Structure formats: C-alpha cells, structure tokens
C-alpha cells in the first residue's frame, strides 16, 4: 500500500495513538491510523527522532498531510498541513553528484568562520556540488560566510528553530547536559538531510563542521566513489575512519600564516598537520551514502538501509577532524605528520583569499 512518511521528533513516552489527516485532491480529508517507528538511538533524552508512517487510500490522491492525536474533532482550517514532497522516482537524473550535509546544527557560540571557508573551498575542489546546513543561530562572522555561500547558490540553509519548541542539549551526555533532546536534534537533522536530497543528489556526505573526508590516492571524492562502486556494486554506505588533527599542535615551519586571514576569526586548519594515530577498534566513522537506500541513520552509522556497508581503507580516504581533542599533553613522537591537505595549496589558497576579500571588504588588511 502507498504510504507517506513524516519525519518527526516525538516524546518517547507517548501513550496515545497518532492519526494522519490527508488533504485529498478531490473531496475533503481522509484520516488513517499512523504507524510510528521510533529511532533506537536517542542517548536517553525524552524526545527522539521517529518516522510516522501514514497509509494512504488510493481514492484520496493527497497533496498534503498532517499528524494529530485527535482524529474526530478538528477544525480543518486550523490543521497545520505539510505539503507532500519527495515522491518516489526511478530515474537517475540528479542535479548533483555529491552533496554535503553538515550534520551538527549551528549554535550561538559558533563563530569559526575561517575554518568554514577553508572547509567549503576544500570540498569544492574535491567535487562537492552542494552543501546543506541547519541553522539556529551563530556568530556574526560565520553568519556573513553563510550568506555569501547562500547567495552564490552553493549552500542551502535550513532554518532549525528547535529552541522554540524544546530545550535541546548542546551535546550528547544526558546526565550532564539535561534537556529534552540530543545535540540540537542532530539525528533528526541527518535523516531530514538524507530524505531532502534523495532525488537531488547521487551521493550524500554526512560530517561535522570541523571534518573533511579527504581522498589520499585520488584528487577528488567522486573518483574514490566511482572506483569503490565499480568493485562493490551493492554498497550503499561508505564508512570513513575518523582521524583527529589537534588544533593544539601547529606546523613548526610557519607556513600558511597568510596575513589576509588574520581578519577572519576561527581555526586556520592548514596549520594543523599532525594526526593522532588511531588505536585498533576505537575509531569512529563518518559516511557517504546513496540516500535512496537509507531508511534511518544515526550519527556514526546507518541503522536501516538497503544494500551493503563498506569500510573504506584509510589509506585511500579518511576523515580529517581538525579540533581540540581535549586530551592534555600529546607527545609529538606518537603523532603522524600528514601534509595531505597541502597538496591542494595551489588551487586552495587563492580561492580562500578571494572569499576573504569579498566577505571582509570593510576590514583593512
Ligand atoms: C492526483 O493529483 C494530481 C495533482 O493534483 C493530479 O495531477 C493527478 O492527475 C491526480 N491523479 C489521480 C489519479 O487522480
Ligand atoms: C555526475 O557524474 C557523472 C559521471 O562522472 C557525469 O556524467 C555527470 O555529468 C555528473 N553530474 C553532475 C550534475 O555533475
Ligand atoms: C540563522 O538563524 C538565526 C536565528 O533564527 C537568524 O537570525 C540568522 O539570520 C540565520 N542565519 C542565516 C545565515 O540564515
Ligand atoms: C554484496 O556483494 C557481496 C559480494 O559481491 C556479497 O558477498 C554480499 O553478500 C552482498 N551484500 C548484500 C547485502 O547484498
Ligand atoms: C593500503 O592499505 C591496505 C590494507 O592495509 C594495503 O594492502 C595497501 O597496500 C595500502 N596501500 C598503500 C598505497 O599504502
């Protein structure tokens, strides 16, 4: 039977049933009983991601849907209808080959503008054609960068005013952070981004603001995917090993201290070229997926899908996470010098400079 899914955030203790109200194209409305599939990963918070599956009857031919606890006594004019998007398609004509979903939501304290420009320009060189970001609010310089890339058409900003509805936690540790919902609703955001891009992009890359999935043997990510997909035709989820490049350690030859960049707040990731070795078995991963094969995703791995998962060999491609690992003193001898990002210097630096000049025009350098 045909069904429409509504991606929701719901109270995991809900005891009353949910109903779907369809707005039919010919006459009036139709109410059906919803089936709710809650995500198993919620980090202990009271609210979590859930898929509300609404069965449709063939006679209805609906264009809009709503979800309610009250199936019999509603005022149709008051029902908040959502338009039904994303109807299943079989063709393969996607406007984009590779879209990046930034999977953590921006918060007020985030003003890491320089690292954001560097990440975007790096991804563009690697074959990314579109980026989607979920915004609550952020610092003034980062906001300027977001508007720049939005005007350019590269970035889609999805408004995510989660604090108007719930008290979101700012991380994952429930016991310390309290609140209603894990990390600003990150899991719902990631699922939303996959569904939103299902028929717009051949592949979707899910990673955080401070991460880049970097190819080590190819010059762009599409070549990596092409090669892997040729060898493993049924793979729909590609997992990449995460590697931390601590911002507490910098290149000792002082390359890439471009004076132009001083006006831009944030981390200059080109300075941080020491990688912490991954001990066996503890690496987390980030992923590139075929969005049409995904039913449910969690942060580090997919929960429900069609097809197979592949762990991409790290020497072919790995995640660079440029961050403060809060590990205290790191002994230099254990770290691996990894200058891969410098291989892109010639193309990358002028592009970053151009964006800095255009966005920071009122500053004197
Ligand atoms: C369903 O509705 C759409 C849009 O209103 C219309 O184009 C289509 O012909 C309808 N299909 C049927 C089977 O009624
Ligand atoms: C996606 O990649 C294929 C194969 O390389 C290419 O033929 C196609 O033009 C690309 N599509 C877009 C939108 O760039
Ligand atoms: C992000 O959201 C905040 C709060 O709603 C808004 O003020 C700001 O303009 C948004 N930023 C962008 C780039 O859309
Ligand atoms: C994918 O293909 C491999 C080898 O061709 C096979 O071993 C595996 O069972 C397949 N997995 C799925 C989920 O079809
Ligand atoms: C990459 O790693 C694999 C498995 O560890 C190894 O077989 C292969 O030789 C490595 N390739 C390179 C170029 O180092």
Automatic annotation (TrEMBL):
<keyword id="KW-1133">Transmembrane helix</keyword>
<keyword id="KW-0472">Membrane</keyword>
<protein>
    <recommendedName>
        <fullName>Glycosyltransferase family 92 protein</fullName>
        <ecNumber>2.4.1.-</ecNumber>
    </recommendedName>
</protein>
<dbReference type="InterPro" id="IPR008166">
    <property type="entry name" value="Glyco_transf_92"/>
</dbReference>
<keyword id="KW-0808">Transferase</keyword>
<keyword id="KW-0812">Transmembrane</keyword>
<comment type="similarity">
    <text>Belongs to the glycosyltransferase 92 family.</text>
</comment>
<keyword id="KW-0328">Glycosyltransferase</keyword>
<dbReference type="GO" id="GO:0005737">
    <property type="term" value="C:cytoplasm"/>
</dbReference>
<dbReference type="Pfam" id="PF01697">
    <property type="entry name" value="Glyco_transf_92"/>
</dbReference>
<dbReference type="GO" id="GO:0016757">
    <property type="term" value="F:glycosyltransferase activity"/>
</dbReference>
<dbReference type="GO" id="GO:0016020">
    <property type="term" value="C:membrane"/>
</dbReference>
């Amino acid at each position: 039977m045909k069904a429409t899914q509504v991606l929701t955030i719901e109270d995991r203790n809900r005891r009353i049933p949910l109903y779907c109200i369809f707005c039919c194209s010919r006459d009036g409305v139709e109410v059906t009983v919803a089936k709710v599939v809650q995500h198993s990963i919620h980090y202990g918070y009271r609210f979590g991601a859930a898929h509300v599956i609404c069965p449709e009857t063939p006679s209805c031919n609906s264009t809009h849907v709503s979800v309610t606890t009250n199936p019999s006594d509603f005022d149709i004019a008051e029902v908040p209808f959502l338009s039904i998007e994303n109807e299943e398609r079989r063709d393969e004509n996607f406007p984009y080959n590779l879209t990046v979903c930034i999977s953590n939501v921006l918060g007020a304290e985030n003003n890491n503008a320089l690292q954001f420009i560097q990440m975007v320009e790096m991804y563009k060189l690697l074959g990314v054609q579109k980026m989607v970001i979920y915004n609550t609010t952020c610092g003034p310089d980062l906001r300027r960068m977001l508007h720049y890339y939005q005007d350019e058409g590269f970035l889609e900003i999805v408004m995510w005013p989660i604090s108007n509805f719930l008290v979101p936690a700012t991380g994952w540790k429930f016991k310390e952070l309290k609140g209603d919902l894990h990390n600003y609703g990150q899991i719902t955001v990631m699922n939303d981004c996959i569904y939103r891009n299902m028929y717009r992009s051949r592949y979707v890359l899910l990673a955080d603001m401070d991460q880049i999935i970097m190819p080590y043997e190819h010059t762009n990510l599409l070549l990596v995917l092409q090669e892997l997909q040729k060898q493993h035709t049924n793979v729909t989820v590609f997992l990449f090993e995460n590697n931390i490049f601590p911002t507490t350690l910098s290149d000792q030859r002082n390359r890439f201290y471009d004076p132009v960049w001083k006006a831009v707040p944030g981390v200059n990731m080109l300075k941080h070229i020491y990688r912490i070795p991954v001990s066996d078995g503890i690496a987390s991963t980030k992923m590139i997926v075929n969005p049409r094969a995904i039913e449910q995703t969690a942060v580090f791995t997919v929960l429900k899908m069609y097809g197979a998962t592949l762990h991409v060999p790290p020497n072919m491609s790995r995640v660079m996470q440029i961050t403060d690992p809060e590990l205290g003193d790191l002994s230099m001898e254990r770290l691996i010098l990894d200058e891969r990002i410098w291989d892109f210097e010639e193309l990358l630096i002028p592009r970053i400079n151009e964006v800095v000049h255009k966005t920071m025009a009122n500053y004197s350098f």
